[in-house]
Fold this protein.
Amino acid sequence: MKISRYIFPLAILLMVCISCKETKSKKASSTLSKKLPNIVLIVADDMGYGDISALNPSAKLKTPHLDSLLKNGIHFTDAHASSSVCTPSRYSILTGEYAWRSSLKRGVTWGYSQPIIPNEKETIASFLKKHGYETGFIGKWHLGLGWQAKKGITPPWETETHPSKYNGTDIDHAASLKSGPTTLGFDYFYGIPASLDMSPYCFIENNNVLDLPMHPIEAKESEKIPGLTQWKKGLASNNFSHGEVLTKLTDKAINYITENTAKDVPYFLNFSLTAPHSPILPSEKFMGSSEAGPYGDFVQMVDAVVGKITSTIKNTKQVNNTIILFTSDNGAPLFYLNPESTHQPNYIYRGQKADIYEGGHRIPLLASWKGHFPENLKIDSPAILMDIFATVADIIEKPIPPNVAIDSKSFLPNLKGDSTFVAHQDFLIHHSSRGFFAIRKDSLKLIDGLGSGGFTKPYKLKPEEGQPNFQVFNLKKDLEEENNLASEESKKQDSLLQILRTFTKDGK
């Protein structure tokens, strides 16, 4: 009788313990299903929309790895860099802002330029870092670095010396950088200061130059592409080889993915390629592999790099937990191609890198996340690269702080399969290397100025008497931008021009 008195309470206690255990198990399972995804953002340099063979039926090259990424995910047909040149585009990706809000109003930075992103500014990297991510940047930076001048010397950026002409002789290359990727939210940085054709030619790890650029080299002209300068003269590290850079960066990216997978924490890798930007240096394996000359061979080498990254993610068994984004910083320059080439790197779109026309800023954008994003889905809604910030924030379900990424809008509904969703219901702004602005609302695009505003002649024209000083194209009917509608006076055109000038006034 005494024993039986304790049986019922013990049974109750046992049931409670089992219930607690089951609850903990369910919580663990729930947490596992909500594990933050790894994010790998690959940004090609000067690669056009038509350089992906799956997007260009008449392409004279083959990109099987990018085609596979497209087939296994989502591709945007109407995606844009925020500018038609690289520095401002990269600014927008990191900050979620139009780049003309920065100190850079036209053109690009150079190897010894000072930073255009202040250290205190929130970036996609610092945002993700606050939410538990390991963050890494590997590759071409090109947003200015905090170089220090030698003791007792006036820094060149405080004089009238143009950074593109500066030879770096007054820089203390051994001094730690005061600003760069690691002051903007990246835990790790390995890369080069700017484009691979700009000095100084050296590798930087975190805040320090690895091998001091003490060796002067002369400019190099292309032997196979008439008129193309492979690289400009400047200082280089003793063992620096332009042709080995892309391979070294790829190896670092592979190591980064492998090492951070082992840590079992989510990571964000911004892998910023140096190709197919000049110098056009396909490795021996890819020479003659395309029907588009050295440039096409180089694009195929880029495709192989993407294949190595996707294979690494598969090998680490993280395919179902890794978002892969591939894009380019602007359209392709046509002068990379031999004159006899029939390949169209920018597909049917008018113009090239630096131009305000579609060929300058319409770029490939692919997104893949196995088991989460639809496969082989085409999105025709417009998107712009600064939207990556807000989209990533939406994916991890974390709010963006006030006054951060102010121009970024999430296109997550597109990634979930809603092909009709339009992130920018109001308008988009485009910007060229020479400072031309354009506004896009629905299918109507208005360019504030005459000419390309970039590399294609004529760069800029004065209007004839009575001629409007702007261009208007209906992209729904005229994707090639051949039929200028500016002479057809309408209140809609006047309204667009007013919105554009008001929105971009004073670059704010």
Observations:
- Confidence is low (pLDDT under 50) at residues 1-14, 16-33.
- The chain has ten helices and 20 strands.
- The first strand starts at residue 38 and ends at 45.
